[in-house]
Amino acid sequence: MAITVVGSVAYDSIETPAGRKDRCLGGAATYFSLAASFFTDVRVIAVVGEAVFNARHIDTRGIEHAPGKSFFWEGSYLENLNEAKTRITDLNVFASFEPKIPEAYRDSEFLFLANIDPVLQRRVRESMPDVKLVAGDTMNYWIKDHRPALLQVLKGLDILLINDTEARMLAGNNNLVQAARGVLALGPQTLIVKHGEYGATAFFSSHSFDPKGETADHAFRAPALPLEEVVDPTGAGDSFAGGFFGYLASQPELTPAVFRRAMFYGSVMGSYACERFGTERLQQLSRKEIDDRFIVFRELTHLD
Ligand code: AMP
Predict the structure, then answer these.
(1) How far is the CA of 48 from the centre of ligand 1 (A)?
(2) pTM for this model (two decimals)
């Protein structure tokens, strides 16, 4: 089943302990699409100033080309490899972007609202009322200064994926479990909190997707793979989201077991994203490598 995604397509300049890379292809929708495209069909909605997208079987008819500069982001991981410190965010062509949904995207059953202005996320959500499952992401930039618009988006989400700091900031609570409860009260039925090198935890509300209510009372955690070297964590969260949502969309039915396996596929894609700067590793990846690493994840966590 196809996924439509709206989010940033960007040029990134990144500094990590492994070095610096200027103006590489990035953006939340870019990482998401590359990761999800190993599992299912992906259709992107975004705007770029110059042609940047040239990859895999991703439908780019919803990428508008506008005069001006593409979204530009500069971040550093010199202080903390688990969380980027943003140095520059230049929205550029995204500042005046009016998303249009191509006719060919309208039968998508899955919608992912990747990190971008919540006003744009909401417009796309409202233009696709018939989708079966909606997930989304955001970040401190939008939580701090665009809260009212973001709260509107949260009301329409089945699954929200954010990191620890964002969950605590959104709920105004430093305890992760209490913060998760606070975020779920804002609308999403399921919350996935990403912990960088420590994995990701899903929290479920009593009206989560699971019809038997098996998952409602307790959280589920997938680990991250301990890596010998983290070259560049940029996009690991978006790649997690792409692997997670891509796997869900590739399955005939959404059950608790499928949900848990999707968390592991998300972790697999996040781990690969960290191995090279920018999108380089995802662009070279094969489905076999993904499945091999899934087995490594099983061995990391299973008792028998
Ligand atoms: P992640 O490391 O998975 O959280 O995502 C990193 C990507 O998010 C980078 O490629 C950036 O281009 C993109 N990004 C950074 N800040 C923003 C923002 N305010 N809105 C949308 N995308 C952003």
Answers:
(1) 15
(2) 0.94
